[in-house]
Each structure stands twice: as C-alpha cells, then as structure tokens.
Design goal:
- This protein is an all-alpha fold and 246 residues long.
- The chain has 8 helices and 2 strands.
- The protein has one domain: CDP-alcohol phosphotransferase transmembrane (TM) domain (Four Helix Bundle (Hemerythrin (Met), subunit A), Up-down Bundle).
- The protein has a two-stranded antiparallel ribbon with strand order 1-2.
- Helix 1 runs antiparallel to helix 2, helix 3 runs antiparallel to helix 4 and helix 7 crosses helix 8.
- The longest helix has 32 residues.
Length: 246
C-alpha cells in the first residue's frame, strides 16, 4: 500500500507579464524624476511609454495564460504611480507651482481620482460589464495631461495662458475618473478575426497620422475618448427612457 504524497503548492510569480508591469512602473517613476530636473517633454513621453507597456502586460498575460491575482494587484499599483501620481506631479511642477494652493488642489484631484478609480475597478472586476468601463480609465486621463504638456512645449505656448487650460483639464480628468460615465473598453473587438481590406488601410493611415504629429493626434484622440463617455451615457439613458415609454 503506497501512501500518496501531499501536493506541494509552488510559490512564485509569472515573470513575463510582470516585466512589462515593472517597465510601466519605471516609466512613471522616470517621468517624475525628469520633471524634477525640468525635462517636461521627456516626462510627457515617459507617461505615454508607460501606457504602451501597461497595455502589453495584460495582453501578454492572457496570451500566455499567466494571469494571477498578484499580477492584477501589481498592475494597479503601477497604474497608480504612472497614471495617478506621475501626471499630477509633472503638471504641478510644470504649470501649477505659481498657483499656490489652487495648483496643489488641482494636482491632488487628479491623483486622488486615479486612486479611487483603480480601487473601484478592482472591487468590480467580477461583476462589471466587460464592454464598458465605469469612469474614465486612468491611462486615458494621464494621456490627456501628458499630451497637453507635450503640445505646449513643442509649439512654445505661453505658460501663463496654458496653465489655466491645464488647470481645467487636470481637475476634469480627475472628476471623470470617479464619474459614472460609461466608456467603451473595446474588448468586444476580435483582433484574431478577419476584417475587410479597407479596415487594414484605415488602421495604416491612422498610424501614419499619429506618427506624423504624435503630440497633437494622441492628445486629440484621448480627449475625444474622454468626451465620448458623457455622450454615450446620455444616449443610452435616452434609449432606456424611450423603451420604457414604448
């Protein structure tokens, strides 16, 4: 009679997806240190790099079947630094220091909005509709901040005028992150399926436009996405009211 050995639970983490998460975390940290040294354009670009790496870690985890609770929590902590603290601090150092307490308040609204957005997202992972995000995703909010800084520096906008626009954008992104507006997650798009040829041409042209003027196109792209939330939510509510009446 042979006795069965108890199964040993192996402890550890999946390396590949967490490498991308670590890269995103470092990019956010690098954005902060660059802003502290007065290199604001570099800081803005670093935030966009963090966005790319943050998008890759989840896809890599799904493709390699290496999802884990540790990875999900680590990703949220990385997002808090890269898309919550980093944009707020970079914006404060670039434009808000002359505002005093108002500038400090605006930067904090964005950072706190990012923290609350991530906390709510984590608690609703199993119950939320996968087709939509509740509130503006923190990477998109960070992209609006970083894109505006990048444009302002690239085209040498007067900081004394630009800082008032930045104040409105920073507070707005913070509030949109904790709003109940619904934003498309684009998860229903099947990247593995076949598409018509003109779709491939449209994607190619879109990439070309972004590469030609990345600061303008990225800013407008994510600004349009931020505006889409209130629009989509209002349209959906109107349809529900019409269905009830009908």
């Amino acid at each position: 009679m042979t006795s069965e050995k108890p199964s040993i639970r192996r402890r550890g983490i999946y390396l590949l997806p967490n490498l991308f998460t670590t890269g995103a975390l470092f990019s956010g940290f690098y954005a902060i240190t660059s802003a502290m040294n007065g290199r604001y354009e570099t800081a803005a670009v670093a935030i966009f790099v963090a966005m790319i790496l943050d998008g890759l870690d989840g896809r890599v985890a799904r493709l390699t079947n290496t999802q884990s609770d540790f990875g999900a929590q680590y990703d949220s902590l990385s997002d808090m630094v890269s898309f919550g603290a980093a944009p707020a601090l970079v914006m404060y150092l670039w434009a808000f220091s002359s505002f005093g307490r108002i500038g400090l308040f605006a930067a904090f609204v964005h950072m706190a909005g990012g923290a609350l957005r991530l906390a709510r997202f984590n608690t609703q992972l199993k119950s939320a509709d996968k087709r939509y995000f509740q509130g503006l995703p923190s990477p998109a909010a960070a992209a609006i901040i970083a894109g505006f800084i990048w444009i302002s520096i690239e085209y040498d906008y007067d900081i004394e005028i630009a800082k008032y626009v930045a104040l409105v954008l920073t507070i707005s992104t913070g509030l949109l992150m904790v709003s109940n507006f619904r934003y498309s997650s684009f998860k229903e798009i099947d990247l593995k399926g076949k598409v018509p040829f003109f779709v491939a041409i449209a994607v190619m042209l879109g990439i070309a436009f972004v590469m030609a003027q990345p600061q303008i196109m990225l800013f407008l792209l994510f600004l349009g996405y931020a505006i889409s939330g209130p629009v989509v939510t209002l349209v959906m509510r109107k349809r529900r009211l019409q269905e009830r009446k009908g």
